Amino acid sequence: MIYRYALLTRASHWVWVLAFAVLVSSGLQIFNASPNLDASDKSNPARRVLAIAAPAEGVGTTTIFGRTFVTTGWLGWTDDGMGSRGAHAFPAWITIPGYQDLADGRRWHLFFAWVGSVCWLAWLLSAALKGSLGQMLLRPSDLPKLWPMQAYYLGLRKTPPAHGVYNPLQKLAYVVVLFVIAPLVVLTGLALSPGIDAIANPLTVMLGGRQFARLWHFAGMLLLLGFFAVHIFQVATQGVVNQMRAMITGWYRLSGRDGAGP
Amino acid sequence: MKRRIFLASATSAAALAGCGPIGSALNGNVAVQRLLATAEDLNHAVIGTRGMAREYRDRDVDRMFRINGFATPSDSHYAHLMADRFAAYRLVVDGAVARPRTFDLAELRSLPQQTQITRHDCVEGWSAIGKWSGVRLGDVLDAVQPRSGARYAVFHCMDNDGSGNLYYESLDLHQARHPQTLLATRLNDAPLDPEHGAPVRLRVPTQLGYKSAKWVARIEVVASFTNIYSGHGGYWEDQGYEWYAGI
Asked: Which of B12, B121, B236 lies nearest to residue A194, judging by beta carbons?
């Protein structure tokens, strides 16, 4: 057994689980108030990348890059949270609150945006001060081990390549999620604010404008959901009990599955 | 192995699907709402009202500026004003001021005029760009001299929600005196039309669109808005939207 996760890492992990769930579902509530994404500064139907609509009673459609799919029941015409279906982009069962309410969706979103961000800063500072950040940073020496590690996961190799506390694929995933995607999701969210835009207009311009920032913000959310899906798959296949114990108590058992964590 | 994957996926899916019902249940809790509302004060303190909203070029303007919000007033008072091309319109500025007074359109036009091409960001998520002209709200406030202790300007409007509840909004005097906070009388090189808030509307490019009240009839300077309507400083604020709309 090794003591793998410090208390602050474990606490941050579970705070992020909560914050991420609330931010995704309240974010979809906010999205529902204007279920379009444009690759532009101001709204511009000519540059519409995604449109979720209910073109007729009982019909939901999703248009991506000009191609329209019928998505009745899933997107466009969905559960309205009040016992029936209606013109509702994302269904009520995945939004906070579970009915159309932009004002409350915003309150949940703007509060948990602070929770997630402050937690990220606290974790980063603590990990940097304790020197434990180094063990999860991807180094040039890890690069040649990426494929052998993937081969091990795919069952093409019997043993994983030698590595430290985290294997090279874990390091890659953590670095990309914690230091690239998460900060981008925060910055693209900030760029949507007219108050921030007045202070830091270059940020909005860099992202292609306000509506473009809304598109990036949504895309970042999808990437994080993708990471989440892979992460859950890894936990499920690499020893659920060991992984969960490690993330709750800190203690991780090194065994035949040595280090092949989520 | 397959069972584990299935169990993990099912648990995650159930957790996500539970967000709606759990969120709805917690949403009604007063303590939860109070906790969530702390973010508004934090955002107000951190972001506040500083800097200048970006100004665009003429060719960026939406010639058909999107119409949103309540229906154009249809009462006989507004019809009378409109028929007369707003010659009888008087903007009342009163409350905690040393020199309460009214302004007709000619008087507003005699004050220094500003034109801005700025983006209007709606809380719903869409944006549009308009060319607005009018008088700085700060100049109007200077003319009436707010008393010491005055903190907010409350805007009473002529439109209602269809059930007779009149629209209103408020800004603190710092936001009201921001150099881009306008009482606009023109949109896209023409006098403001009835659908966009004629004859006078507020334009606050540093905050979300619901702050930019249309059809303004009276500006009341106050020390506190807790006794006005439901006490949250605006029609939408009374419905749960944040008073600080910079984010």
From this structure: B121
